[in-house]
């Protein structure tokens, strides 16, 4: 934050803006999540375990005109039997004020590991979805959403 | 929100054994994210529904933990494989401690 504000105050165009004003502008941005925060969040859940690709169908719009209501559907390929099913699914947003979006717990009674909801996205960013199978295997998928009008703050 | 959040659930009332049914739920709730500022620049405190659960005949089927990133009037859909007749209980847990509950009967032919 310090380096950022120094850099900006050097610019003539911003010379008129006081440090306090600048801090106020920068402060809300600083609290936003990023790739590292999402990675830390995942590490908290699963440690250093490796993730496989595939099995996850992460359905989000390529372009979301309104960041306040962005539909999301996750579907994980699984027979959903007592022996082999999807245990949990976590969805994270890399560019929101908080990284977490939603966490699901599925049971074999679901018959199909698929769920839809609607989320808020602050800006153009990646959505990360991880799924834990009943046998302990982990899968990961990412998708980028371009957001025209942000859905946080205001 | 001035009015009490009202849940709306769409579940087929009848299904064949082994049939996969989609359950769609919607509840009116502002889902105040705790990130928004009011006109005077103060942050509006967070108040969201943080958990949604679905049980069938008392047995847990599906759970969702919602974060502030979930839109206002949260929508949630998921699937259920019909096996026997019974009743669904859907519960939404609010930050303020209140629970909103909806029940729906399902007849399996």
UniProtKB/TrEMBL annotation, chain A:
<dbReference type="InterPro" id="IPR032711">
    <property type="entry name" value="SoxY"/>
</dbReference>
<feature type="domain" description="Ig-like SoxY">
    <location>
        <begin position="43"/>
        <end position="152"/>
    </location>
</feature>
<dbReference type="InterPro" id="IPR038162">
    <property type="entry name" value="SoxY_sf"/>
</dbReference>
<dbReference type="InterPro" id="IPR016568">
    <property type="entry name" value="Sulphur_oxidation_SoxY"/>
</dbReference>
<dbReference type="Pfam" id="PF13501">
    <property type="entry name" value="SoxY"/>
</dbReference>
<protein>
    <submittedName>
        <fullName>Thiosulfate oxidation carrier protein SoxY</fullName>
    </submittedName>
</protein>
TrEMBL record, chain B:
<dbReference type="InterPro" id="IPR013783">
    <property type="entry name" value="Ig-like_fold"/>
</dbReference>
<dbReference type="InterPro" id="IPR014756">
    <property type="entry name" value="Ig_E-set"/>
</dbReference>
<feature type="domain" description="Sulphur oxidation protein SoxZ">
    <location>
        <begin position="10"/>
        <end position="102"/>
    </location>
</feature>
<protein>
    <submittedName>
        <fullName>Thiosulfate oxidation carrier complex protein SoxZ</fullName>
    </submittedName>
</protein>
<dbReference type="InterPro" id="IPR014880">
    <property type="entry name" value="SoxZ_dom"/>
</dbReference>
<dbReference type="InterPro" id="IPR030995">
    <property type="entry name" value="SoxZ"/>
</dbReference>
<dbReference type="Pfam" id="PF08770">
    <property type="entry name" value="SoxZ"/>
</dbReference>
